[in-house]
Amino acid sequence: MKNSMPSGTAKLMLTLVSILCSLGMFGQPIMSDLLNPVQVKAEERVENMKGKSIMVFTPHPDDEAFSMAGTLALLARNGNHIQVVIYTNDNRGSLDLTMTRERLAEIRRAEEEKACLAVGIPKSNIHWLGYEDGDLEYADPKVLRGDVARLIKKYRPDVVFSPDPGSAWVQWHKTDHRMAANITNDAFIAAEWHLYYPQHLLDEQLQPFKVKEVYFFYSQQPNYEIDITSVFDQKMKAALAHVSQYEPSLSKYTPALDPKTAEAVTTRFTQLHLCNQGKCLERFRRVE
Ligand SMILES: [Zn+2]
To answer: Which tens digit of pLDDT belongs to each residue from 232-243?
Structure first.
């Protein structure tokens, strides 16, 4: 198709489209309306927990930053022990024709470590399962479920965060997100019953463990919201650490964040998290 737009305008459009894609505006729910909020006593609310074991499962490095970095900052501030488990190495998300998968995996790892540090999580608490970007559904599900169940038995989380496997949003969703959401959920059962992966007990003395409290991010049926106003700047640092996923770095990689992009993303996040209405929020579907 003939491009009749002036190049400057075309470039700006591409930048905005990329930012919108990054923020999930083409299907992925960063922030849906709160439906039937669950009533939880203040002392039992997850954002008030202290010294607990928390596990986060994310398809790619950045999904947890976009959807729940504020909550992570609050949990870290409260002295909780947070483990971030990342299914893929995100080594295919570049439009730069000179980029290689190996180099991109290294870039994505460094960006994720920076993002986690911005919310108070050291890189030693990041667990890379190492699957190739876009290939998670082609991995052996039984092996993958075992990987996750093993980590659950090891870290025995009081609370788990994971993408929502619910029906509405998966109509759009891409392979790694579908698979990560389903596998995390399937691993809850596998971690609870020792005969699913008996070698965990026999070889490593890992006792079975029952996950009791789960918060799903990217939910279209959120019933729980967390006020992240006090840590919103940390959330933005985490989100903006993923430089390679925004233009102009997406098309021609540069490690420097473009100030215009930073401003546009911050403005969009401010809207998405409803900061313009008084306080910044992150929303989840809570189940127990
Ligand atoms: Zn993702």
So the answer is: 999 999 999 999
The DSSP string of the chain is ----S-HHHHHHHHHHHHHHHHTTTTS--SSPPP-SPPP--GGG-GGG--S-EEEEEESSTTHHHHHHHHHHHHHHHTT-EEEEEEEE--TT----TT--HHHHHHHHHHHHHHHHHHTT--GGGEEEEEEPTT-GGGS-HHHHHHHHHHHHHHH--SEEEEE---TTGGGT--HHHHHHHHHHHHHHHHHHSTTSSTHHHHHH-PPP-----EEEES-SS--EEEE-GGGHHHHHHHHHT-GGGSTTTTTS--SSPPHHHHHHHHHHHHHHTTGGGTS-EEEEEEE-
Q: How far is the CA of 207 from the centre of ligand 1 (A)?
A: 31
Domain that residue 92 falls in: 32-287
Q: What is the CATH number of the domain that holds 150?
A: 3.40.50.10320
- Identify whether 83 is part of a domain: yes
| 95-106 confidence digits (pLDDT tens) | 999 999 999 999
Cα 63 to ligand 1 centroid, rounded to whole Å: 5
The answer to whether residue 43 sits within a structural domain is yes
- For the chain, percent of residues with pLDDT exceeding 70: 87
Distance 177 CA to ligand 1 centre (A): 6
**pLDDT grade, residue 36 (50/70/90)?**
confident
CA of 129 to the centre of ligand 1 (A): 14
Q: Is residue 147 part of a domain?
A: yes
